[in-house]
Amino acid sequence: MGANGKLQVPNQPIIPFIEGDGIGPDVWSASRKVLDAAVEKLYKGERKIEWKEMLAGEKAFNQTGEWLPAATLDIAKEYLISIKGPLTTPVGGGIRSLNVALRQELDLYVCLRPVNWFKGVPSPVHHPEDVNMTIFRENTEDIYAGIEFKMGSEEVQKLMHFLKTELGVDKQIRFPESTALGIKPVSKEGSQRLIKAAIQYAIEQKKPSVTLVHKGNIMKFTEGGFKNWGYEIAKEAFGEQVFTWMEWEAIKAAQNEEAANIALKKASVEGKIIINDCIADNFLQQILLAPKDFSVIATLNLNGDYISDALAAAVGGIGIAPGGNINYTTGHAVFEATHGTAPRFANTNTMNPSSLLLSGVMMLEYMGWNEAADAIVESLKTTIKRKRVTIDFYNLMHDATLLKTSEFAEELIKNL
Ligand code: NAD
Fold first, then answer.
1. Closest C-alpha to 395, from 350, 348, 343, 354
2. What is the pTM of this model?
3. Residue nearest to atom 16 of ligand 1 (CA)
4. Which of 51, 136, 233, 291 could form a disulfide with 130 if both were Cys (CB 3.0 to 4.6 A apart)?
């Protein structure tokens, strides 16, 4: 990470990987081959990734007795960028989720999820091509911070007592005897760094708007705070590069709605990023009714979880949706498949490797190796168009050819 806040990627970077559990080894092996082939083809040996395995999940547990060995965290910290397959969530005790632990340890505050449709991919909506969004989901706060207390526990009793005696909370808890409690931390600092990253991305990628998605109508200080702090940082950090809905409101109040709309249109024509907001439940309607209205989305952790899957489903991509977890300040990033380990299909060589592969594409873009990234995306488009696909797409397409995971990778390499 350079002092200027930009990554300086050598031509032979060492990149740690976690192959993952269940179907992980199958989809990782296929993805790695395609990533290597694209880099080789585009840079003709001048650039090459040196892969370095790090252990996590079942493989780590079997070899070291730990689900997430300290050595793995050290490697991920030292090499900045890494990639991982899906990991089994250990049942009972210790770590709640390895993914959440990794995100929190490395303070990967952005969960980045691009959502686009690949022509030919079966989708449940009429116009999947209208969906072209990039989600910035806050990754370290909200109810995912894991501050939860079990019904009947001493902690709940203490907290209940504190709420009642110190904070005057009384009737709001409907069934005090049988209540579990959770705490939802949302900070100005955490919200603003996420929203700043989303606006920066919109400027760099020449996107038209950033929408803040929240439930501020109900959770006024946490989700409402997210919205207010978002508008605040947009003007503070980006000034004339953005036009916010607050400015629209101000013009409307001072003049009229027509004048506000003219100002909005002018800002848009001038290439300013429009910053607006949408309440989460309405947003989930609008992505089906008017997906073209949205481009870059900045949202809190839980909303982001629901939205990512809903949008991925709209483009038929739940099995191929990629993801990246990024700290834009330190440069740390872990790119990952968004599906789970599908244990029933472990070692069958039948699953779709595209989610992990496209996460690798996001990684190449993050490194500035865009030529290799673009080549893989084009190859994937061609391969899907030719209907040479794995079982998940095969089952939903007419006249398709069924390929194994490894054969699909070979096809992708051929089409590079
Ligand atoms: P899952 O995503 O593993 O599987 C659900 C179904 O989706 C599978 O049965 C399969 O039909 C389909 N599917 C998943 N990946 C596919 C692929 N690449 N190609 C084609 N079809 C695919 O979800 P689950 O069964 O709920 O979870 C299994 C395990 O994975 C659990 O231990 C869970 O905690 C873990 N998990 C891990 C991650 C992660 O590491 N990021 C994410 C979700 C779940």
1. 350
2. 0.91
3. 319
4. 291
Instruction: Give CA separation, 178 vs 17, 164, 168, 175, 316, in Å.
Output: 44, 16, 19, 6, 41
Rounded Cα gap, residues 352 and 348, in angstroms: 11
Q: Which residues of 150-184 are buried (b: 16+ CB within 10 A; e: fewer)?
A: eeeeeebeebbeebeeeeeeeeeeeeeeeeebeeb
Query: For ligand 1, what atom is nearest to the CA of residue 337?
Result: 41
Is 374 a residue of the active site?
no
CA 282 to chain centre: 21
CA 122 – ligand 1 centroid, Å: 19
> Is pLDDT above 80 for 126?
yes
Instruction: Give the DSSP letter string of 158-203.
Output: HHHHHHHHHH---TTSS-GGG--EE-----HHHHHHHHHHHHHHHH
* CA–CA gap between residue 353 and residue 85 (Å, rounded): 10
What are the distances in angstroms from CA 400 to CA 320, 388, 395?
A: 18, 6, 9
144 part of the active site: yes
Half-sphere exposure of 138 (CA within 13 A, CB side): 33
Any catalytic annotation for residue 36?
no
Catalytic residue among 215, 227, 272, 328: 215
DSSP 144: G
| 305 classed as catalytic | yes
Is residue 155 scored above 80 in pLDDT?
Answer: yes
Percent of the chain with pLDDT over 70: 99
